[in-house]
Amino acid sequence: MESITITRTDTDSKARYAARVAGVEGEGELTLSKVTDKLIIADHTGVPDTMRGKGVAAALAERLIADARVAGQRIVPLCPFVRAYAEKRREALADVIQW
Q: What pTM does this model have?
């Protein structure tokens, strides 16, 4: 597994996770919209070709889910990647995914 560093930046209504892999050019991202304090929407996940196959998108989804659990939030998975990720783990993520 590659060493993936994920950072999060927030505004009042949005947040963005950025993922970098040491020695690899580019940055993966996962963006979300804050609907309420307890409801967020996963909007978009994007990973450049240089990072494909390194688990970056999954790491971004896992960080989003972990942060939402800590904050007591529910995630609406509008992003196709996050939706597919959650579908495969539907039972394990029932507490955090809003279908």
A: 0.96
